[in-house]
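Case study.
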Amino acid sequence: MGQIFSQYYPLFLHGLGVTIFVTIISCFSGTVLGTLLALGKIYGNKFTSRLVTIFIAIIRGTPLLVQLFIIYYGLPGYGIRLDPILAAIISFIINSGAYQAEYLRGSIQSISANQLKAALSIGMTRWQGIIHIILPQALRRVIPAWTNEFIYMIKYSSLAYVIGARELMTEGKLLASRNYQFFNVYLVIAVIYLLVIVIFVYLFRQLEKKVTIP
Amino acid sequence: MPTKHLLKIEDLHHSFGSNQVLKGVSFSLNKGETKVIVGPSGTGKSTILNNIIRLVPPDQGKIYLEDTEITATKKINEVRQQIGFVFQDFGLFNHLTALGNIMVGLTKVKKMTKQAAAELALNELDRVGLKEFSDSYPSQLSGGQKQRVGIARALAMQPKLILFDEPTSSLDPELTGEVLKVMRNLAEDGMTMLVVTHEMGFARSVADELIFMEGGHIIEQGDPEQLFTEPVHQRTREFLFQLTDLYGEGGA
Ligand SMILES: Nc1ncnc2c1ncn2[C@@H]1O[C@H](COP(=O)(O)OP(=O)(O)O)[C@@H](O)[C@H]1O
Ligand SMILES: [Mg+2]
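After joint prediction, the assembly is written out as follows.
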């Protein structure tokens, strides 16, 4: 196993780089999308709120793989041809955004409405109240759920191999189909995923500690 | 208008669905006056205060802050800067320190520099006796301290008027005194205040006028001493005596 790694580490590292890149972009952009969706659902008018609910239901109610195929294989039918990595990132952002919207909604709603009232009472606009008072607290509270989302996303990003995005899983599969050492290659890959996840969980715990409010 | 009022409320009506809460309430405050509103729970006292800064826009009636008709203005945020609000449950921002709670309105709303805001905020904390707690978060403060931060936050915006909605009702009895004392000092310094409270000791010693409300109407208003000793309405006497029994005469 160690031998496989030392022999082919540029391949593994390249794949890992892509995996982490895709995961980080998808997760962070997913947070932005999720925040907008959650705000639309809570503070938007009836129409916006309904629209967001339907969008979230559709995304959460269909397999990620199907969403990925629609974007990668379906869109070219309408003249939109995407690079596999970009297609993967877009579908992951949409998917993660829908899940994160639900975490964030719970987190925003757990912050008492009285704080928004207080913000308005000193002359803040609703938007200022949301930005300066509600979100800083809601985002802190969502970190544990967000850590889980990140772990899922690292693992789900391996789905990108089916459209040929050259992330960690794809590199492994290509390698194994050349040297036939399926067991060893996939074992190396499993260990890499595990290590990366352990490291990120540690980093997020540190972040959580750092921003915790007494 | 013969005299110029700081706050004038005319024929205020408000309903929540079919629940008619305010059925025509009118009164006014002059600069420097303190008025206390009392009345049974659910009678619409908080609704009046919320109507004044349009946290809940009233159904009918007019409210003026000096020459500005609050009920009609398009610049409600500017009006809110001029009217402080102190909440029963403090309404502090939990992610900010005591100082941060006061500064955020100054920097984000009044667009003051951080430095100027910090200086002013520290002054206001000092005024409520909490200078050494500037770095404490709300969760690290007692109820009385939280409420004093709430008052300092309102003060820092340099309002023309402060509304208090039962500022001591969430406090343990031994902590009400420190809050009432700050409020008494404000009244003595000439701040205009409209206070909903059950603290009859405070009302008798500080208020220029006591307003007794019930069922969405003002039943009686006047000099607090007079309402206690020779009220026009029997109901006023009953209610005030019942309150005094419940809460005592205490309070600053
Ligand atoms: N947001 C609201 N929605 C529906 N009913 C409300 C709301 N706020 C207050 N009420 C009702 O209005 C009445 C008056 O409430 P409130 O002004 O809080 O009374 P008070 O402050 O005198 O105790 C009560 O019956 C209360 O249940
Ligand atoms: Mg009330």
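Observations recorded in class. Residues B 16, 19, 21, 39, 41-47 surround adenosine-5'-diphosphate (ligand 1) (CB under 6 Å). Residues 2-43 of chain A form the longest helix (42 residues). We will return to this complex in the next lecture.
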